[in-house]
Amino acid sequence: MSVTKERKSLVKSITEKGKTMEAEMSFFDHLDVLRKHLVRSVLAIAVFTGLAFYYYDFIFDTVVMGPRKGDFWTYRMMCKMVEAFPKYIDKDFCITSIPGKIINTQMAGQFTLQLNSSVICGIVLGIPYLLFELWKFIRPALHENERRSASGFVFFASVLFLLGVLFGYYIVSPLSVNFLSNYSVSKEIENTITIDSYLSSVATLTLGTGIIFELPVIIYVLSKLGIMTPKFMRSNRRYAVVLILVISAIVTPTADIMTMLIVSAPLFLLFELSIFISANIERKRNKELNGAA
């Protein structure tokens, strides 16, 4: 009798061990699939990085150093606004030159500059493909209705990111560069900026704004999971307004109220769009529950 029990116990333990090994293999299989998606994404970013490295003369002179030039698109538009509304906009709003001097202080500084700026361009251009690979990884785990509702994830996330990058590059970066280059606590201190500091500031502002513009996508995911609701967002709108103004003040360290409002306006629109998206998801969920009832 005891032998029979031991056999059953052994068979049971072997069966449970087999299920555990199967689950572990499934987990590692998923990791292997994810690894392949990430490898393809890294290769795409590497290709874009190589192209940026090859065309570096254009990347550096036109893109990287653009916000430092007086004829940059943003500054020309600001001068046109002054010409169109001279009674309402101060002439100081028109920017024709950026003071200060940019220097390199390291032996390999210029090579590192070329490499780092090429990598940044590669990441910016490769983000849409990275989102596409992540979507391909997540898609098989979704139900058919979830696949349909999230079918435009890659497109909308990519568009919002690129819009954020463009807004950060053409609005946030030049306004911040102009303010910080002109800011001085004493006439005896000359602004001499290292190229690493300049590149880091422009890249942070540009990529940071691109990530901030992903707010509607984040709210969509949180609403789908039931974590975020439109009621919560509406009831805390006043706190969101304060937070947006604080973010705008940090992103654009300038005492100019108009500049802060220019930066904060898209964030207000994104927040309201996020409320609309969350409300739409909640409405569909309630409709499905009422239909099932």
UniProtKB/TrEMBL annotation:
It is found in: Cell membrane; Membrane. Keywords: Cell membrane, Membrane, Protein transport, Translocation, Transmembrane, Transmembrane helix, Transport. InterPro entries: TatC (IPR002033). It is a multi-pass membrane protein. One of its GO terms (molecular function) is proton motive force dependent protein transmembrane transporter activity. Pfam families: TatC (PF00902). Signal peptide: none annotated. One of its GO terms (biological process) is intracellular protein transmembrane transport. One of its GO terms (cellular component) is TAT protein transport complex. The chain crosses the membrane at residues 38-56, 113-132, 153-172, 205-227, 239-255, 261-281. Part of the twin-arginine translocation (Tat) system that transports large folded proteins containing a characteristic twin-arginine motif in their signal peptide across membranes. NCBIfam families: tatC. Belongs to the TatC family. HAMAP family: TatC. Forms a complex with TatA. This is Sec-independent protein translocase protein TatC.
